[in-house]
Write a structure and sequence with these properties.
The chain has 178 residues and is mainly alpha-helical. It has one domain. It has 6 helices and 3 strands. A hairpin with a 3-residue loop joins strand 2 and strand 3. Helix 1 runs parallel beside helix 4, helix 3 packs antiparallel against helix 4 and helix 3 runs parallel beside helix 5.
Length: 178
């Protein structure tokens, strides 16, 4: 019975973290990932064009401002990956940390490349930029989050289903499940 109590405590702790991460519109993701996104994008752009960074705006060739807003940082995508990673039963703490770091690192790299590529497209063709931006926004961002999760499942040999496995475990050990 002690084993069951530890698992229930683990479930409560994981979901408490999920709730905490959602507080004030994912502020923690924006606090961490805004500078981790803006500075590499700025460095990449500065390598190829004249660029100046002013807060969250990269001005290219003194005339093309590229503002990196919260939506560009993709805080909700990080949150979805956090939910998937934290709501999966049966993962040890070390593996869970590795999974979260892998997921966040993958998304960060994708996001930096996405913003950099879109910035270069913006400099060359506004109509192409608008189409590419919408394509990335509506399709690629979602597809990439799903791809990261599926890759993690395979890489870390995850057998459980997020949320469902927790609910199944709790039901099995509840009064109704006995």
């Amino acid at each position: 019975m002690e084993h069951v109590g530890k698992k229930i405590t683990d479930i409560i702790a994981r979901y408490a973290i999920i709730v905490f991460l959602s507080v004030q519109n994912f502020w923690i993701f924006y606090f961490v990932f805004t500078p981790l996104t803006i500075y590499p994008v700025y460095f990449i752009l500065q390598t190829f064009v004249d660029a100046v960074l002013i807060k969250n705006i990269i001005v290219i060739n003194t005339q093309y401002p590229i503002e990196i807003i919260d939506a560009c940082i993709a805080g909700s995508a990080y949150y979805i990956l956090a939910i998937l990673n934290l709501s999966t039963l049966g993962i040890g703490i070390k593996t869970r940390i590795k999974m979260v770091l892998f997921a966040f690192g993958s998304l960060l790299i994708f996001n930096i490349l996405r913003i950099s590529v879109l910035s270069f497209i913006f400099l060359n063709s506004m109509p192409v930029f608008i189409a590419a931006h919408k394509f990335f926004w509506y399709f690629m961002s979602t597809a990439f989050v799903v791809a990261i999760w599926f890759f993690e499942v395979k890489l870390f040999k995850i057998k459980e289903i997020p949320i469902y496995s927790d609910l199944k475990f709790l039901h099995k050990h509840s009064m109704k499940g006995k």
